[in-house]
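Progress report, Aim 2. The chain analyzed during this reporting quarter is listed below.
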Amino acid sequence: MTGKSGAGRNKQCELPGAMSGVMPGKKPDVMPDELTDAVSDVMPDELTDAVSGVIPDGLPSPDGGRIVNEVRQRLFKMQDKAYADFHSRLIPEIARYRIIGVRTPELRRYAAEFSKNADSAAFLAILPHRYYEENNLHAFLIERIGDFEKTVAALDRFLPYVDNWATCDMMSPKALAKDKPALKAKAFEWISSDRTFTVRYGIKI
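Predicted structure tokens for the chain:
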């Protein structure tokens, strides 16, 4: 009895694959409420980042946890669960719990507003993101960069983390048109990548 009970306890204590941001096997319909709470601002910022897979790689300030939490609070205020269910069927490679359900026009409006905030630069330095909409917000912020070289640098940093066709295809920075010869060379560089969506972006652009 003791051995069986101990095994049961060990099994319950195992961390689900959702903790890493990648769910093996069948895509779950929802993320358990207790796990959603665990990665919210209920926990200290540094622990929230560790659990959610948000890595402050090269973050220029210690405010990554605050910035991520504030962004997520805004995204969840715009949530449409029915839209999330529908959208999840269009991008089956993304686990359902990673899709908040924010419509693209609303997300673009938020990107326009957020781009005027100094925190947006720090947000672009925080990769990988946990939610699909965070990736799309990142893409829309890149679109608002006006300089060609800065846009390319931001894309080089972000493209390795793009994990679905929708985020890849909706990202069209106007600044890339400012230097078409350089863009052509960059596109060939992206096409030679070993990452699926970097290649796709190079072909698209």
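The two ends are 63 Å apart (CA to CA). The chain has a mean pLDDT of 79. These observations will guide the mutagenesis work planned for the next reporting period.
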